[in-house]
Structures are given as C-alpha cells and as structure tokens.
Amino acid sequence: MTKYGDEIPVSTQLSIDSHADFLPENKLLLNAVGEGIYGFDLKGNAVFINPAAERMTGWKNEELLGRNIHNSHHHSHADGSHYPQQDCPIYNTLHDGIARETSQDVFWRKDGSSFPVHYTSTPVYKDGELIGVVAIFRDISIQKQTEDSLRQALEQVQALSEKLTNENHYLLAELADRTGDVGISGESQVIQQMIRQIKLVANTNSTVLIYGENGTGKELVARNLHRLSDRSNKPMVSVNCAAFSTSLLESELFGHEKGAFTGAFSRRKGRFELANNGTLFLDEVAELSMEAQSKLLRVIQEQEFERVGSSETIKVNIRLVAASHHDLLKRVELGLFRMDLYYRLNVFPIKVPALRERPDDIPQLIRHIVTELNRKLGKKIKGVSKQGLKNLMAYSWPGNVRELQNLLERFSILSHGPILHIPKITPQTTENPVKGEKTLAQVEAEHIKQTLQRLSWRISGPKGAAAVLGLPPSTLRSRMKKLNVIRGV
Ligand SMILES: Nc1ncnc2c1ncn2[C@@H]1O[C@H](COP(=O)(O)OP(=O)(O)OP(=O)(O)O)[C@@H](O)[C@H]1O
User: Fold this and answer.
1) Which intervals hold domain PAS (predicted)?
2) Which range has highest mean pLDDT (4-8, 263-267, 349-353)?
3) Which residue among 172, 362, 373, 401 is best mutated to probe the pocket of ligand 1, counting the most ligand atoms within 8 A of its Cβ?
4) What is the architecture, at CATH level 2, of domain 6-139?
5) CATH topology of domain 358-437
6) Contacts of residue 199, Cβ cutoff 8 Å, sequence gap at least 6
7) Cα–Cα 20 to 30 A to 166, which of 18, 132, 381, 464?
8) HEC string for 80-97
9) Does the ipTM surpass 0.90?
10) Rounded to whole angstroms, how far apart are CA atoms 343 and 354?
C-alpha cells in the first residue's frame, strides 16, 4: 500500500465520450449493480450516485449530488482521527489520473456509524483529458469480521497449544511420579552416590549442571531435582536448546510482543516467564549459540530480561537446571562455549554414569523397565532368561538406559511367552531381533544414520540432515533419540 492506496494499471482507466453528465449511457447498468458507485467531477463533487451506494451509506442522491463526498462521509479514519482529503486515494486519482485500490478505509454512514470498504478509484478521460473519477466500492464488513475471527482463533489456538505443551510435560512428569517412573533404578555405588547428590542439592536454589552420555537419565535427574525441591508444586519447564534456531530460541526463552517479527500475531510468554517460581530445565545447553549464551548469562546474573520487541524488564525467580552430553569444559577450550557461563552453570555438577560403568544395575533396570512395558503393552512378561541376562550384562550399551529400554520393548513385542530370550548382543543385533527381517524402525534408523554420516552429523541448517530428510531439526532429534541413532556407534 502506498500512502494513497495501491496504484492499479493504467489499462483500467475509463474513457467516455459524453462530458457534462459523464456516465448517462451506462446509468441503467450502474443502477443495477450491487457495488456502490460514485462519479466525481474534477472538483471532487459528486455527479453520480447509484442506488447501491445510497443503500450502503444511508445518504440519498439529492443530499450528496454536487457536494464533496469526502467531507460528507469519508472525513475520518476507522479510529475517528481526521482523514485529510490530500491523503485520500480518490482525491489523488483526481489530481494525477492514476488508478488506485484500497481495503484499508471506512466510509461513514449518515447515521454516524462506519463500515470497512474495498474501493477502486478510476480516472475518467475524454479525448485524452482527465474529466473526473469513478469510485466503485463494496462493504467488506463480513470479510473483515471473518479475517478477525480467524486471526483471533489462530491466536487462541497458538496460546492453547503452548499451554497444552507445558501442561502436558508437567502432567507427564506428575503421572510418572505417580506410576513411579521418576524412580531412579540402580544399586551400584555410582548411582547411589548420584542419588545422594540429588537429595543434597534439590532443596536449594543452586544451579545444577547435569552431564553424561545420551540416554543415561539426565532428564530423569532433572525431574527428581524439581520433585524433591520446595518448588515442586510450581511448574518445571523444559527447553531443548538444540531444537530451536538462535532467533526462535530467543523468543522461546524470553517471549515476544505482538508484531515483534513476522508471525508474532500475539504477545507470548517465554519459558523463563512460564517457569517463574519453578524450575527451568535447559537440555542440550551446549547447543546454544554464542549470542544466546550472552543473553542467558544476563538472565542468570540478574534474573531479569525483556521480551523480544519490548523494553519492559521482567523479573523472575527461577531455579536453573542445565544438562549436556558434551564435555562443556572442552567446548570452552574450543571457544564454543563462554567460560563465564560455564562457571555460572557449573555451580553444582552431577555426573550421570554410563550404563557400562554400572552393569550390576542392569537386573534392577530390567525389572523396572519390564513393569513399565507390561503396563504400556498390556503384556505379562516376567523377566529375561538367565542366558539372556548374561548377554545383556556383557554388552557395552553405547545408547545407555534408553537403548536397553528400546531393546526390551522390541523383544517384549515379539515374545509369545513370559520370559524374554535375548541372544548375544552386538550393535547390529540390538537393532535386529528377528533374523533376516528388518522392522520399519530399523530401516528408518539406518537411513537417518547414513544421511547423518554423509553430512558429518550436521543436523540443522541448509546442509544439515533435517533439511535433506525433509524434517524440522527438532523432529529429527526426537526420532534419533527414539531410534537410538548415536554418533560413532
Ligand atoms: N536409573 C534409571 N532408572 C530408571 N529409568 C531410567 C534410569 N536412567 C534412565 N532411565 C530412563 O531412560 C530413558 C532415557 O533417560 P533420559 O531421557 O532422562 O536420558 P538423557 O540423558 O536426558 O538423554 P538425552 O541426553 O538423549 O536427552 C528415560 O525413559 C528414563 O526414564
């Protein structure tokens, strides 16, 4: 839109022969159409008004003919502010002979009410000389109402979906609490030492950094830290830092104001605000860009931030728990992670041991996982055969507890009896429980892995595997997690 409305092609200019009364030949036709039509002379005075225009505006022909229509019922904008005639598209067509079109104005009825209009102002030429303008308009109240309700519905859906995502996570954790899923299985010294650390630090406000390989139970530890803290009746809000681009992550963490960027239809709270008085869990924290790291540092230091597109400072009270499967200190040495942020996060580090460091925990983990699986699959599996257990304990579990869960799930689905007979495991056999047959999940996992290997394990960006596979990076990451696709295995 230009200041005066969108200009439209010159070919739409009208050229007529009669002069003084410049539309008489078409009068019958113009009187019959549903659109309102005004004819203006060069002074901007009405010389023609059709019945549809009368019906829409309430102004009678005789009340407007020979008078300046802009002053009569186009004098103000929708918000009531004065609408200078020089800004009006019709006035400008009268002066430069260029056709225009707009849907941004309202016309005022005789009774003082207004309605949104779409109108074109078309110059009228006679013998190549501009003699007036024809304005054709229609009431677009219904169209605008539909647009408004669609926009409102979309905003509501977005707000609800955001709320549901948070509630869902919270409820799942609650449910997990009730079903005992947050219980950390393991009697090994390393796990018992870790549980002691959790209990010690849970009820403080100290920031905790959880580190360990993928699938070891870092999120489980975070949930327990929250559950055992005096913030447990407030939300624990999780953010997977690897799932968002830098710009999206910023609005995800800090929220945004309506119109802060394209697609920001409404004001939205960020995760920091949603986690107020509760716990914010930053998973995969090593994936934060340097820019995001600086912003995070400020929030940790000052517990305050601004929404994207706002200058208002928001204060929050949050307990921060971060997790990473990377060695963060190594990333600091490589210049990929800010040292000051590292020290801010590493206030109380908790290491979650890899499963191969604690094979003695495998029997207890199997009992725990089989109970969960029986509930999930409606089965009555009692356990694993003696030889099966030996085989499980002899394996190195690069995908840790998650890999054990996945393997037990596959064998439970395939098993017809109450005891799972699990053969000797190699990285291949974990994925291949039925000889010669590949499940859909296996084929998917292989394809994802091959693509990642080909692209040097780059996930996001135009040259990343997500783009090649046609998936959002967050979806690819969750598929990798689910299918236990791990680098270097
Ligand atoms: N000690 C444990 N006892 C019972 N279940 C466990 C234990 N450790 C992990 N799990 C289960 O293993 C699965 C993976 O754990 P979780 O998602 O917490 O791992 P993670 O380290 O956060 O993984 P990633 O780094 O890939 O995000 C979960 O279903 C979790 O409940």
Assistant:
1) 29-68
2) 349-353
3) 401
4) 2-Layer Sandwich (3.30)
5) Helicase, Ruva Protein; domain 3 (1.10.8)
6) 228
7) 464
8) CCECCHHHCHHHHHHHHC
9) yes
10) 24
**Angle, to 10 degrees, between the axis of helix 400-414 and the axis of helix 473-483?**
70
Q: Is the CB of 214 under 6 A from ligand 1?
A: yes
> Mind listing the pLDDT tens digit for each residue in 250-266?
888 888 887 767 666 67
User: Cβ(402) to ligand 1 under 6 A?
Assistant: yes
Is the C-beta atom of 186 inside 6 A of ligand 1? Answer: yes
Burial of 315 (0-12, 13-18, 19+ CB in 10 A): exposed
The answer to whether residues 299 and 320 touch, using CB atoms and an 8 Å cutoff, is no
Regarding the beta carbon of 88 and ligand 1, being less than 6 Å apart is answered no
Q: How far is the CA of 417 from the centre of ligand 1 (A)?
A: 27
In 10 A of CB 359, how many CB atoms? 15
What pLDDT digit, counting tens, does each position of 122-181 carry? 999 988 899 999 999 999 999 988 888 888 888 788 777 776 776 666 666 555 555 444
- Quick one: CA torsion of 226, 474, 274, 351, rounded to 10 degrees? 20
CB distance 219 to ligand 1 below 6 Å: yes
- Do 271 and 239 touch, CB atoms closer than 8 A? yes
Could you read off the pLDDT of 98-119 as tens digits, one per residue? Answer: 999 999 899 999 999 999 999 9
Nearest 10 degrees: Cα torsion 299, 240, 397, 337: -40
- Ligand 1 contacts CB of residue 213 (under 6 A): no
How is domain 151-353 classified at the architecture level of CATH? 3-Layer(aba) Sandwich (3.40)
Ligand 1: atom nearest CA of 361 is 1
| DSSP class per residue in 280-311 | EEEETGGG--HHHHHHHHHHHHHSEEE-BT--
Question: What is d(CA 365, CA 183) in angstroms, rounded to the nearest whole number?
Answer: 11
Q: Does ligand 1 lie within 6 Å of residue 217's CB atom?
A: yes
User: Considering only CA atoms, which residue is closest to atom 30 of ligand 1?
Assistant: 217
